[in-house]
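[audit] Reproducing an earlier prediction to check determinism. Same input, same settings, fresh worker. If the tokens differ from the archived copy the diff job will pick it up downstream; this log only records the rerun itself.
[audit] input (264 residues):
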Amino acid sequence: MLTVSTVNVNGLRAAAKKGFVEWLGETGADVICMQETRAEPEQLAAEVREPEGWHARLAPSSAKGRAGVAIYSRAEPRAVRIGFGSSEFDDSGRYLEADFEGLTVASLYLPSGEVGTDRQDEKERFMKEFGEHLAGLRERAAAEGREVLVCGDWNIAHQEVDLKNWKANRKNAGFLPEERSWMTDVLSGGYVDVFRSLHPEGPGPYSWWSYRGKAFDNDSGWRIDYHFATPGLAERATSAVVERAPSYDQRWSDHAPVTVTYDS
């Protein structure tokens, strides 16, 4: 069995003080994809930077204190790659790939965007380049007899069942028609939304809740953290859960880990 978790930690140093270290010590995951680590390796405590029993690979952003992705794995990767060949985004701490036997796992932190601002333009540029990378990655993996799993915070709710207040968000970044259409294209281009394939009914379960108001208590969230896999791997998925904290005060991030187990 292979168990993979993905979680936006909302600042790895902060998460480590609020329960991440304990979660890491208890998880049954073999691979963990993290996003928004917001730290240089030397800024992390040893128990987080080099936890016992794990091989840690971090890709911080050149913009200090922003973004950052990581992959922690119990088995040492055969190869690791930062970025996807983009002159604009490869040093932005938004994408990291690790190769294992017969499998490439990637951690993605897609820009969140903001309608009417440069941030949305950046998101659209990223989506265009990254969509092309995903297609090439799938083709190369197929030629080599490998599977692909891209995990992370995609910052897009794909369908109405993927966020609580979808009607109020139709003109907001994360649920724009063009963003949702792009995600549909990714899925029709050879990838499977693993969680939704196992749990086709909605609404939810959600993986992110704003810290504002009573969003968590009311389960007014978004499903924006995904496992997108090539079909051969997706077919081997046996279980998928969102590790939602029991209560607001037990959260160590505004996201919850999304964990999927695959037959190896």
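[audit] rerun output stored. Observation attached for the diff report: The chain has one domain: 2-262.
[audit] end
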